[in-house]
Amino acid sequence: MADIENWKEATFEEKYASMMAGMSVEDQRKSAQQVIHLCLCSRCPTYKEAEHEGLVFCTLGKSQSMHEKNGCLCSECSVTRTMSLRWEYYCLQGAATELAGIKRPEQ
């Protein structure tokens, strides 16, 4: 499990288990809103080419209006670095939890 001593080296799965595994879906959404100022989605080429809908796709899941890859800023995002995320195009593929095979609480 990730703790302050090994946070930097911890995997996404370890960080998720430490922070969010016991949270309800609603609490996870609230947590995502707290990091929205760090999110680069609104500046992303893929986001700019689609109907504007949502942010923090790495946490909340894929967009219903984005369908084409037009460039991705996920690897440059501080949310990605902080949480040790290793995928891209969350707006098209889904939340990091889905990509990691982590079962989230029912909505």
Tell me the span between the first and last alpha carbons: 25 Å
Unreliable residue runs: none
Q: What structural class do you assign from the helix and strand content?
A: mainly alpha
**Rg, alpha carbons:** 13 Å
Helix coverage percent? 25-40%
Question: Can you describe this structure?
Answer:
The protein has 107 residues and is mainly α. It has one domain (12-100). Helix content is 38%, strand content 0%. The mean pLDDT is 87.
Blueprint of the fold:
Elements: H1 12-19, H2 25-34, H3 45-48, H4 57-60, H5 78-83, H6 90-93, H7 96-100
What are the main properties of this structure?
107 residues, mainly alpha, 7 helices, globular
Short synopsis of the structure:
The two termini are 25 Å apart.
